[in-house]
Amino acid sequence: NAGVTQTPKFRVLKTGQSMTLLCAQDMNHEYMYWYRQDPGMGLRLIHYSVGEGTTAKGEVPDGYNVSRLKKQNFLLGLESAAPSQTSVYFCAIAGTPSSYNEQFFGPGTRLTVL
Amino acid sequence: DQQVKQNSPSLSVQEGRISILNCDYTNSMFDYFLWYKKYPAEGPTFLISISSIKDKNEDGRFTVFLNKSAKHLSLHIVPSQPGDSAVYFCAASAWGGATNKLIFGTGTLLAVQP
After folding, report:
1. What DSSP designation does A43 have?
2. Does A19 contact B at CB distance below 8 Å?
3. Which tens digit of pLDDT belongs to each residue from B2-59?
4. N or C: which end of chain A has fewer CB within 10 A?
């Protein structure tokens, strides 16, 4: 997981509260991704970015917003948290694909919404 | 609709024996496949990949086999070691969108018994 950090590592929210998860990378990679992992569901893509200033929706974007104001940072926001958003959130990065590139993952943020 | 399926939630193998993890996919546009390994409380780490132009890729104790006609791939670990105990995710990608997006399976928990 070297090169990709996630802040915070753990968080407990009450329904309706808001928060922002930060993903930071020092590998100068163009592509950044936010996933959530739920039991029996694997990893599902929430939003992604193919470069500074760009964002796009993934498989499960509802209830989340993202921003990529700086190349090295990708923020995931929850405006009004719901219990269904209780999950482990992973950030990943990848280089610009001239060919296929594997994604490198951060250590994760465990979020509980009560 | 799950495009990448790992039908075995768990697998138990004796140390020194072969572990075979299976993955099926439905989307014929997928042309690049990856395996990730995940320990508890850590992010997934890339293990091995294969392009659709190949039917086998080997890296040390790990070999991935691809059967395009059956839309099936498998990961072989020989010999299995206790440190291999982890959750293994299969992932697939379709070249052409230049987004490097991955679709993940639900994972298989491998337990290697000493």
Report:
1. E
2. no
3. 899 999 999 999 999 999 999 999 999 898 999 999 999 999 999 999 999 999 999 9
4. C
